[in-house]
Amino acid sequence: MLTFETINELTLKVTCTGSDVLFVKAGAFIAGSNAGQKNYSFEKVLLGPQNNIGQALLGQLARRVTGENLPLMKVNMHGDSVTYYANYGQHVVIYHLGQGETISVESENILAFTQDCDYSVRFIGVGILSQKGLATSALTARGKDAYVAVLSDGNPVVLSNVNNNETISVDPDAVICWVGNGHCDPRVAADVSWKNIIGQHSGESYQFEWSGNTGVTVIIQPSERSGGISVSMD
After folding, report:
1. For residue 210, what are the β-bridge partners?
2. 49: helix, coil or strand?
3. N or C: which end of the chain has fewer CB within 10 A?
4. Is position 161 within any domain?
5. Mean per-residue pLDDT of the chain
6. Burial code of 217-231, b = ≥16 C-beta within 10 A, e = fewer?
7. Which letter does DSSP use for residue 198 in this model?
8. Distance (Å, rounded) from C-alpha 116 to C-alpha 145?
C-alpha cells in the first residue's frame, strides 16, 4: 500500500507498506530509506503505464499524436520504505481519487500516481484551435488507493463549483488539472473576431469553461505555459 504526502510543499513523500508499484516522472527520485538492503528499484516505462500491451501501444501512439508525452519510470517496491520525489523546485499537489473519479491533467504536470489509476489520453476540443489544449491525460481511480501527485509552477489556485453552481472560466495555458465524476471536460470558448485577424486581440482569445451544472474542481498555476493554443483562421 502506498500513501502520498508533501514535504515543504516542494517534495512528494511516498510511504510504502508491503510491496507495491509506483509510476513517477522519469528522473524525479531524490532520496529514499528503508531497513536493511535497499528494497526498491527503478525501470524505464517504454510504452506506458497500461498493463495490457495493446492498450500500451495505442496509448503511446495517442501521446505522440497529441503531444501528451509522458516520460515515466516504474518504481518496484519490495517491502516497507519511504521515497522522495521532486522536479526543479516546483510545488507538489496531491489528490486522493474516489472510486470512479477522474483527474484530467497536462502530462508535463504529472509527478506520480499509483497503480490503482487507469491512464488514458482524451480529446477535448476540435476546430481552429491548435497545439496544446486539444488533448489531456486522464487518470481514473479503479481502487481505493488511487493517489495522484501533480506539479505547479508556484502555489496553485483551486477553483470549484461543486457547491455553488458557478461558471468557471480559465486560461488553458495556466490549467494544471481538473477533477470530477463522469464527463466533466470543459467547453473551449474562442473569442475570434476581425480584431484578431488584424492583430488587435486582447491576448485572451480562448478559455476553458465549465458551466454551473458541471460539478468540477479546477487547479491552476500562477504562470502560463509558452507555446499554448494559437488562434488563426482556417
Report:
1. 168
2. coil
3. C
4. yes
5. 81
6. bbbbbeeebeebbee
7. T
8. 6
Q: Is residue 35 part of a domain?
A: yes
| Number of domains observed in the structure of the chain | 1
**CATH number, residue 48:** 3.60.160.10
For 60-97, how does the pLDDT look when each residue is reduced to its tens digit (9 = 90+)? 555 454 444 678 899 999 999 999 999 999 999 999 99
Question: Does 172 reside within a domain?
Answer: yes
3-state helix, strand, coil in the chain (%, to 5): 10, 45, 45
Residue 102, domain member (yes or no) = yes
**In the structure grid, which three cell numbers stand for residue 7, read together?**
514535504
The residue range of the domain holding 210 is: 2-220
Distance of alpha carbon 28 from alpha carbon 88, whole angstroms: 9
State the maximum Cα–Cα separation within the chain, in Å, rounded to a whole number.
Answer: 69
Determine the number of helices (DSSP H) and then strands (DSSP E) in the chain: 2, 19
pTM, two decimals, is: 0.82
- Distance separating alpha carbons of residues 131 and 231, to the nearest angstrom: 10
Residues in the chain: 234
Q: Is 88 left (phi over 0), alpha (psi -120 to 50) or beta?
A: left
